[in-house]
Amino acid sequence: xxxxxxxxxxxxxxxxxxxxxxxxxxxxxxxxxxxxxxxxxxxxxxxxxxxxxxxxxxxxxxxxxxxxxxxxxxxxxxxxxxxxxxxxxxxxxxxxx
Length: 97
Prior knowledge:
With about 100 residues, this protein is mainly beta. The chain has no helices and 6 strands.
């Protein structure tokens, strides 16, 4: 089993209320499958007086069996009608088996 930790953004990076980011990953050796798991996330509105309705975080791994690398896509959105600016960071781990 092989592991690749990935962090998207940081708490000072500003995103729109819905965004998708793609990051390459590389294992030291070829693997048969790759799976992304969410380690954590930290999202906040820049306006401190705001109520949260719903946050969605989706991970999609793009990988061909037997390869050493691929891409992982992180899509997150705030289901809210305010269209406020948010900042955030998403941490994930890609596991190769």
